Amino acid sequence: MKRRNFLIFSALSGLGLALTSHQFLAQRTLAVVSCPQGEKKRSQPLFRFVAVGDVGLGNDGQYEVAQAMNCYLQQNAYPFVLLTGDNIYNNGEIEKISAVFEKPYQALLDRDVRFYAVLGNHDIRTNNGEDEIRYSGFNMNGRYYTFAQDPVQFFAIDTNGNGEYPIFVIRQCKPLCIFARNNRELAQNVYPIR
Which of 194, 103, 115, 102 is CA-nearest to residue 154? Predict the structure, then answer.
């Protein structure tokens, strides 16, 4: 299985989305033709979110994943998507943002789904990722930032090794910046901190 397919499958399967029996349009549009009807869950989670990475190609595969995310949203509302890096291939060129982000995810953006991004190694190749940090659609409040979705506090951390880790990372995310303080704080990053 290719790395990209594995990442896509892992992110969506963790949310209980069956990627079979989807019908996608031949054109690059997110109008829903048919979404599989899943069984209704008896218990509701505290909240849902979707996480995807290595998405910034603007190719058919990205449109198919966006379509699956839209289908899932129709059955299981979620307020945001975590973008775990490599948001714009090949080199983080912000002029590609329409083709690799706004168009593929237009249906989600129209339904007020927010995206929170971190920088991947491809994203920092142009202007050290500063253009992506300033892009409002990625909701990045700097290279390192945090946001809350009750009852979870998320920490977004640039782990590319091109900067110092801020003090809140050291205080809040020890030892590995994955889970902290009663397993209610999650870290979103591309590479594990060692």
Answer: 115
